[in-house]
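Tokens as discussed.
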């Protein structure tokens, strides 16, 4: 068993190393031949065993070529980070540990590292030091967990116990979002029983920021959802103008800061977060800008007890002493030890390294905008953070140029709609992106665009 596991894990590590070392030489999106080869996985349910070495070899040979090279430096689709080396390595080691992070008695190290991460995140993200933090799968679940906390507290103030009675017959809660709310935040509202269609929507400005002058008539049974980092433009809702109004009215302010909350780490960019510290809850991703492996999100609630109360499970066998009981901060009971990867990323980068990463990605985004402008193309947003929107001409031209860029394979960017126009979105979110990657990608974008426009 011992030597087998050693060979197996070495084999797997070798494949991983080979994968990462050749990532730069392949197209960012898999070629057709690799995709067709996925059909090899389609076989009848195996009746008999296969050696683990063969399983892993098959997985590598057939699976690795059909991955998207988002762990490399030239993936700019959606908002996707890579994995900083220490965090990836910690992920491998923690895979060997196979810890259940729900309870300290199941994993002292996971519980301890989560506590360390809680303190570090309070400082890094500049949020109140007594806020409660839960380690969830991503910003969708972080938004959802925070919104459930908000819902329960607002209803509790009206004398309604959601735990006992659910939402049937409960006093109504208003939900206010910006026109540019992320679709996953609407899903989170939906999952929390708050509905998508009954939300009140505040108009946004040319950058997708909620218009502060349109935020009116707030009250103490309202959840106001702000966005720190619009997925298209990177713009932030003006929290410094809006949150004081909400506080005065007794409304709950929730912040979706899936990637934008990390601006707090940058002395150049933290001005964007002015006022955000006064919110009641926040959601962010660790698998985006902190560059830890999937899946990893963080829910933060100003009064830790509000989160713990919302995530209440009951069940005497789970009663735990100790400072912080991990499962009491998340929807899950059993889950993986996400704190390990977050700890490793922060420990290896340090505050300075993380600030350098954020600043570098922002500078690289500005370089994309500059290079594309110089080549005669139109940038549709103010590049305040890491997101760039470019139009190559008509919507049809932009669409075909996006396809050509994706097919070329030097880099990968997706398309989006912005104020009625088709745009290509460039999101620079990876620790692995070098300035050379940016120049190579820029050259490929301009070459593909000129080929099509003639
Ligand atoms: C990515 C993103 C989300 C969803 O996050 P997941 O980690 O994919 O669940 C929510 N809001 C914003 C602004 C995002 O960029």
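Sequence:
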């Amino acid at each position: 068993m011992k030597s087998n596991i050693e060979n197996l894990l070495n084999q797997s590590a070798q494949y991983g190393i080979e994968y990462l070392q050749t990532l730069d030489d392949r197209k960012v999106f898999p070629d057709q031949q690799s995709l067709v080869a996925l059909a090899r996985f389609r076989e009848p349910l195996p009746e008999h065993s296969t050696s683990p070495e063969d399983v892993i070899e098959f997985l590598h040979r057939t699976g690795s070529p059909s991955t998207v090279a988002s762990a490399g430096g030239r993936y700019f689709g959606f908002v996707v980070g890579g994995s900083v080396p220490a965090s990836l390595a910690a992920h491998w080691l923690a895979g060997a540990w196979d810890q259940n992070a729900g309870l300290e008695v199941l994993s002292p190290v996971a519980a301890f590292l989560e506590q360390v991460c809680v303190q570090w995140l309070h400082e890094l993200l500049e949020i109140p030091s007594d806020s409660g933090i839960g380690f969830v799968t991503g910003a969708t679940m972080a938004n959802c967990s925070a919104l459930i906390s908000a819902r329960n507290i607002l209803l509790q103030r009206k004398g309604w116990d959601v735990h006992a009675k659910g939402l049937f017959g409960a006093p109504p809660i208003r939900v206010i979002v910006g026109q540019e709310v992320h679709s996953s935040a609407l899903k989170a509202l939906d999952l929390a029983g708050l509905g998508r269609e009954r939300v009140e929507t505040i108009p946004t400005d040319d950058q997708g920021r909620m218009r502060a002058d349109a935020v009116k008539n707030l009250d103490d049974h309202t959840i106001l959802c702000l966005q720190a980092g619009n997925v298209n433009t990177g713009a932030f809702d003006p929290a410094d103008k809006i949150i004081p109004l909400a506080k005065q009215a007794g409304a709950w302010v929730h912040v979706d800061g899936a990637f934008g909350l990390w601006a707090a780490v940058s002395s150049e960019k933290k001005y964007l977060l002015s006022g955000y510290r006064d919110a009641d809850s926040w959601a962010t991703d660790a698998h985006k800008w902190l560059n830890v492996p999937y899946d990893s999100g963080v829910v933060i609630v100003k009064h830790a007890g509000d989160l713990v109360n919302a995530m209440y499970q009951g069940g005497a066998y789970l009663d735990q002493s100790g400072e912080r009981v991990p499962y009491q901060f998340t929807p899950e009971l059993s889950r993986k030890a996400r704190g390990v990867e977050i700890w490793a990323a922060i420990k290896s980068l340090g505050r300075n390294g993380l600030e350098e990463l954020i600043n570098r990605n922002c500078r690289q985004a500005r370089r994309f905008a500059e290079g594309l402008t110089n080549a005669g193309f139109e940038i549709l947003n103010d590049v305040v953070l890491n997101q760039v929107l470019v139009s190559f001409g008509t919507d049809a031209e932009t669409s075909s140029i996006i396809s050509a860029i994706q097919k070329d394979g030097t880099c990968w960017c997706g398309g989006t709609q912005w104020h009625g126009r088709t745009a290509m979105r460039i999101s620079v979110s990876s620790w692995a992106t070098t300035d050379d990657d940016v120049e190579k990608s820029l050259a490929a974008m301009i070459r593909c665009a000129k080929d099509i426009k003639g």
